[in-house]
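Q: How do we represent a protein-ligand complex in a form that can be generated token by token?
A: Start from the inputs.
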Amino acid sequence: MSGVYRDLLGIELPIIQAPMAGSQGSELAIAVANAGGLGSLPCAMLGPEALRAELGAMRARTDRPFNVNFFCHSEPSVDARREAAWRELLSPYYREYGIEATATVAAPSRAPFSTAAADILEPFRPAVVSFHFGLPARGLLERVRSWGSKILSSATTVDEARWLEAQGVDAIIAQGLEAGGHRGLFLTEDLTSQIGTFALVPQIVRSVRVPVVAAGGIADTAGVAAALSLGASAVQIGTAYLLCPEAKTSAVHRAALKSESARHTALTNLFSGRPARGIVNRLMRELGPMNAAAPAFPTAAAALAPLRATAESTGHGDFSPLWCGQNATGGREIPAALLTRALAANLRPVDCGP
Ligand SMILES: Cc1cc2nc3c(=O)[nH]c(=O)nc-3n(C[C@H](O)[C@H](O)[C@H](O)COP(=O)(O)O)c2cc1C
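Then emit the structure tokens for the protein with flavin mononucleotide bound:
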């Protein structure tokens, strides 16, 4: 597996900047790509025009390989009763903020990879395409493969890793329980199956032949070296990049990441309908963090949008998803190129292969 990141991904450093939908766009990805890491463009929350524009920006501002990331969940059918029950649970907050119970606020949704997205992506032929929540339907996957893009996807269990290998992925992202943002789980919803990075990475490395990328709680060069010594070929790091000036992290999110509260995170389904790790805030304390009333992914977000917008306008993150991994100590307000190089500094050649 040595030097896999060079041969497979075409990058100089074994560092993948994690795609972070809603918290970054092309600017962060370009900075990381130009510094020798793999910059990632998260596309789950981009409409067709924004997707085209962001891909165009990537092509214009870097000639290095980059990763384009999509979700592949199945879209839920409309469940009016569940939505009404969810709004009823939120109604004390609506009253507190003087918001109409039926209020809607335009909020970007999360869409799965589709033929329409593939049509936009095709002329760009990105070096890498990564998926979260499994893989798209076979035909779509084959289309991406036919352009020569390398295909990566997240596994949160050994079973998921084996399944992904059987579908022919080029590398597997082992997402440990420490990771910020959504759990990539797709074969099970049982959260007791989810294990930490130190336990997950070697077990997946032993179970598959394809290269493994370690993700979750890696925040500094010692963490990178540890992951590589467990058999990972590269690392994928999210939380540490959230304070970079090139990230689009909101003001309330930045403030929370820099505060003591970043030490306390939990898995919550309140903000989207799927379990994701974020800093514990008022909504999580009072309704959850896990609550069966939250509608199916990604629809839980809609009813929260007006509360979130109102609270954020006065500097409060009480109703915002403050995605964050269990190790926020690596977050530094430095340019992403500097952070990327710092994360890969002092790696001994033996860590990275020949
Ligand atoms: C703010 C945020 C947003 C995320 N959004 C995505 C996403 O859009 N797609 C994806 O594949 N992973 C996403 N993730 C998960 C990352 O890919 C990765 O598993 C995680 O950041 C690694 O753990 P760390 O945050 O401790 O470094 C997100 C993580 C964070 C922190």
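The chain has a mean pLDDT of 95. Residues 15 and 37 are 5 Å apart (CA to CA).
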